[in-house]
Structure formats: structure tokens, C-alpha cells
Amino acid sequence: MKGKPLHIAITGLNNTDNPGPGVPVIRGIRESGLDVRIIGLAYENLEPGIYMPGITDITYLIPYPSAGTRVFLNRILEIHDREKIDLIIPNFDAELYTFIKSEKLLKQQGIRTFLPSPEQFEERSKALLPAFGKKYGIKVPASKEIISTADLRDLEEEFDFPVMVKGRFYDAYPAWNKEQVAVHFHKISSKWGLPVIVQQFVKGTEVNVVALGDGTGRTVAAVSMRKQYITDKGKAWGGITIDDPRMTEITRDLIANTRWRGGMELEMIRTSSAEYYMIEINPRIPAWVYLAVGAGQNIPGALVQLAMGMEVPVMEHYTTGKMFIRYSWDLLGDIGQFEKITMTGELTAGAGDIPGQPPSPDLP
Amino acid sequence: MRIKPSIAISENGFMFDPNSGESYTMNQLAREIIFLLKEGRSEEEIKGILTGKYDVDELTLEKNLIDFYAMLRHYDLCEEGGE
């Protein structure tokens, strides 16, 4: 007898040139063989995942967490009343803290999450990364928090240029002198707030790991990737799975020592002398996770199973030399779909055509 | 010197290093040398095979082979020993 499908709510449907992980996470879950109903949660009415066929079953607009936790959670619970959500998988750095802090409240309502603890989330933040590296014996480039331009005064003594200037959640720009740091500081702080982080630039190859920890210290899955093609936003537009035992070892040690719970992405630089510097730890599944699925480790599917209390064996192997290449594709929609998501805040897959209306004219 | 066992080499001269994610394309002669190394031939044997097959003086060949082996070492594609 077939049971009720799992109702899973997922954010990050912005499959743009700076993609959120929602769409690849959904692809992984759908390919895991689990019986699911996917409820998309979108912040903007033009997030491509809302309109992509075969991705969500229904999508709801939600307010940004910056609108306030109460407003945000009220909308989630309103959607829960209609959809009976079993699990939420948030995919944006900026919303994670709200979900982590609300874990208990959501659980009381019957909504599960599978996220790191507030302490785990906080200690790996960009601003605290040097202390994190020291605590867990990981090489981390020197960095400094910048709160105001006054903090830039001694920068030339503290760092060798170039340096990377990073936002607390997103954005990273290289700077070759103090003046460039100041320009990036203003640009990033106006978008993502303070602090802005200045990090020593490390020359080498950028390599990443997507991993899943079960919260007991066990690494359930880990796949290493080398970026082959990087966009002007620093995002991977192409990548290939690699077999680097040292990267796997660093990942397993880190998950064992922190008892990490949930998905994570480790961003490292491998120098020509085979040293590894951790430049970022993202506390969520990255947008390139579908590569891991294709290489044999269905991390989104495993995360759902762990969240639902199912037994998940450790995935030891994956195919190396598996590649991904992103592409842009013009998806055609109808004004009726746009109207529906804009006016009612929701859109069911395949809905939105206005009965009795002629087909939309082709736009020039 | 021998080619690392993990390096994948296709018949048409495409080489992939699964450790670094780097890939390389080889011309016909590079491919020939790589396959001889894969067979376990020594550097001396390879020199002998190539001078017998191609119209090249020993000094020029040796100079070019030294360059080629240095490149393999630089890209971390080989390990010493195994002769």
C-alpha cells in the first residue's frame, strides 16, 4: 500500500547566473525514489524554479527574513496549514539563522529540519573562520573584520596584497591596494551589511567539497569537485569530480570534530605545494550538488532520509571525471502564471493559463 | 619513471588526472612515449625504440625527452622507479 507522500518545502529557486541550490536539491530528491510533494518557497515572483516544469508541485511566495521573524514564520505556518509540511530545506545563507533559531517552534508544528546547531552555524562564519581553523587544526588564510574605513588604516602592514574582500553572506572581490578595498567595502556593506571581511589571497586551484554530516560525527557523503569555469561572480559554471584523498580526509575530520548536522560546502585552495587552505565553509548544500547526485552520491535524497529518521548508510564511492556545465535556456511562460503568483502568492505546476483567453502573442 | 596508475589515458591521446581534475591532450609522439612508459619500458629502452623508428639524432632526441619527462614531473603525472 502506498503511503502519503512526504511534503517537502524548499527555498532557493533562483536558478540564475548566481544560482540558489533549490532546483538541484529538488532534482536530487525526485531522483532518490522517495514519494514526495515539493512545495517551492520563493522570495521573488520571477525565480525560474517557479516556472520550470517538473520541479515544484506548487510554489508560494514568502517574505524575506529581513521583514522580521514573526512575519516570516507566520507565512510559513500559513502555508503549513494548507500543505502539512513534513520537512523544510532552506538553501540560502541569509535565511538559515532564522530557520535554525526556529527549529523547536517548527518541530512543535510537525515540521522537521536538518540543520546545524546555532553554535556550529556561528563558529564557521567568515568572520570567525581563523579561530575555527585554529580550534580544528585547519589552515585558514589570515583575515580581518572591517566595520568602518578606519579599520583599513593598517591594512598594508597586516596583509600582502592582493586580498579578497568578502561580504558576510555573499560576494567576494579581489583588491590590489587599500583604495580598492575601500571601494569594495562600501559596495558590499551597503548590500549585505557589516562586517565585511578582508582575507589574505592564496594562490592556487579552487577546489570544493559537498558533504553531509548526520550530527553524530559521521560523514554520510562527500564529493570533491574542481571548478573548471568560473563566472565573474566567482560561481562555478563548470566543474568536474576529482579524487583527492586529502580533501576527503579534511572533510571527514571536520565533520567528526564538529559533529556537523546537515549539508555543507567546503571551499578550499590547493596550492602548488599541495597545501590546503580553507577559504569558506557554507552551512548548506551548494548549487552544484546535482554533480554529486550524478557521480553516485544523492546528498539531497540522503538529507531527506536523515531528517525523517531513516537509516542512511555511508556513501564511500563516487565516479571521478563526472562533469557539469551550466547553460542558459529561455523558458517560455504565460502572463497568467505571472499574474497568479503575483496576485495570489502561489502557483500550482501547470496552472496559470486564463480560461477563455487566447494564447499570448509572441513578444518581439 | 612510470605514469601514475590513477591517470586515465585514452587511445586518442586524451589524458585525465582524477586527483587534480586537470586534462591534457597529447600529440602522436607524446602518446607513443606515454604508452611505452605505461608498458613499463625504461627511459633507455624508449630512446632506443624512437631512434630506430624516426630520423633523429640521439642528442636532439635526448634533449627533447628530458624536456618531456620534466613536464610530466611538473604536472605530477609520473612517479620515479618502476623500471
Notes on the structure:
The complex is a heterodimer of chains A (364) and B (83). Chain A folds into three domains: 6-113 and 332-348, Rossmann fold, CATH 3.40.50.20; 142-200, Dna Ligase, domain 1; 203-325, ATP-grasp fold, B domain (D-amino Acid Aminotransferase, Chain A, domain 1, 2-Layer Sandwich). In chain A, 32% of the residues lie in helices and 24% in strands. Chain A has 13 helices and 15 strands. Chain A has helices at residues 22-31, 48-51, 69-83, 93-101, 103-108, 118-123, 129-136, 155-158, 178-192, 245-258, 289-295, 299-307, 335-344; strands at residues 6-10, 36-42, 58-61, 87-89, 143-146, 163-166, 172-175, 196-200, 205-214, 219-230, 236-242, 261-270, 276-282, 323-325, 346-348. In chain A, the strands form three sheets. Chain A has a six-stranded antiparallel sheet with strand order 13-12-9-10-11-14, with helices on both faces. In chain A, strands 4-1-2-3-15 form a five-stranded mixed sheet. Chain A has a four-stranded antiparallel sheet with strand order 5-8-6-7, with helices on one face. In chain A, β2 (36-42), α2 and β3 form a beta-alpha-beta unit. Chain B has 83 residues and is α+β, with helices and mostly antiparallel strands. Chain B has one domain. Chain B has helices spanning 28-38, 43-53, 58-74; strands at 2-3, 8-9, 14-16, 23-25, 78-79. In chain B, the strands form two sheets. In chain B, strands 2-3-4 form a three-stranded antiparallel sheet, with no helix packed on it. Chain B has a two-stranded antiparallel ribbon with strand order 1-5. The longest helix of chain B has 17 residues, at 58-74. Chain B is globular and about 35 Å long. Chain B starts with a strand and ends with a strand. The chains are: A alpha+beta (364), B alpha+beta (83).
